[in-house]
Structures are given as C-alpha cells and as structure tokens.
Amino acid sequence: MDSIEVKYPAARKSRLIQRQLDGELLVYDTASNKAHCLNDTAARVWNACDGRTSVPQIAAHLSIDAAIAVDEQTVWLALAHLEKTQLLDEPVVPPELLQQIGRRNAVRTLALASVVAVPFITSILAPTPAQAASGKPPP
C-alpha cells in the first residue's frame, strides 16, 4: 500500500479499548487482538491526532504540556510508530529529511536531544480465550 501525506493526522478510535496506567497508555485493539503500551510522549501525540491539528501544532502543544522542547521530528517519529501499530486512520509520510536520514539515525538524534521525549510503543499479541485457558492445571 502506498503511503499518502497527511497534514492533519487522525488517531483511530474504533475497536480500541484504552486504559491509563502509571504514566503510560495501554491501547487494546480488539480487531487484531494486540495490546500496545504507549509511553507518555507517544500517548500525548496519539491523543492530539484529532484530524484538525497539524504536526507543528502537535509539537507546540507537547512542548507546553511537557514543559520541555518537543520538535517536529519527535512527533513524526511517534506518528511512524503509531502508523506501524495501525493506531492511525490514515498513513503518514514524514518530511523528506527524516526519510533521508533514516529511522535509526533519527532515533539516535532524538535520544541525544532528549531521552524523555522519544516516543516508544511496545506491542504484544494477546492470547485468545482458548489459548489463555490451555495452561497447566493448578497442582
């Protein structure tokens, strides 16, 4: 599937269950049976993706909310993670510069700039009820 540029990213809200847990946001996708744990930065970006807010505006809002400078590259990196985990309505394409330097260099650059601001998402495949029930019986 070809990616298209989205000026105003929109978070997917259908078939998702959200829970805030200790500074992280747990998002369970009932369509794919996957659970995604978003750190504070990734959660803030995802919550700001309302389809009406631009990437520069999201970066500005995060900078104010988090009381640290959050640049557009951080937002684009979070959007790339959110797209990969299928938590956005539309695909996103980062600016040319971010595509040219690559994800690894972008992560390194962002990590050096601010460890707190690097978006991070951990995903797991949740077992089906039958798989969960197939464990060993208690002794």
What general outline do the C-alpha atoms trace? elongated
How large a portion of the residues is in β-strands, by DSSP E? 15-25%
- Stretches where pLDDT falls below 50 for ≥5 residues? 110-117
- Order the strands across the largest sheet as they lie in space: 1-2-3-4
Pairing-aware structural class of the strands and helices? alpha+beta
Number of strands: 4
Gap from first CA to last CA? 50 Å
What value does the average pLDDT take?
Answer: 79
Proportion in helices: 40-55%
Number of domains: 1
Order of helices and strands: EEEHHHHEH
User: How can the largest sheet be summarized?
Assistant: 4 strands, antiparallel
Report the radius of gyration as a whole number of Å. 17 Å
Count of DSSP-assigned helices: 5
Describe this entry's structure for a reader.
This protein is an alpha+beta fold and 139 residues long. It has one domain (16-127). The chain is 41% helix and 16% strand. The protein is built from 5 helices and 4 strands. The protein has a 4-stranded antiparallel sheet with strand order 1-2-3-4. A hairpin with a 2-residue loop joins strand 1 and strand 2. Helix 1 packs across helix 2 (55-66), helix 1 packs across helix 3 and helix 3 packs across helix 4 (96-113). It is elongated and about 50 Å long. The protein starts with 15 loop residues before the first strand and ends in a 6-residue tail after the last helix.
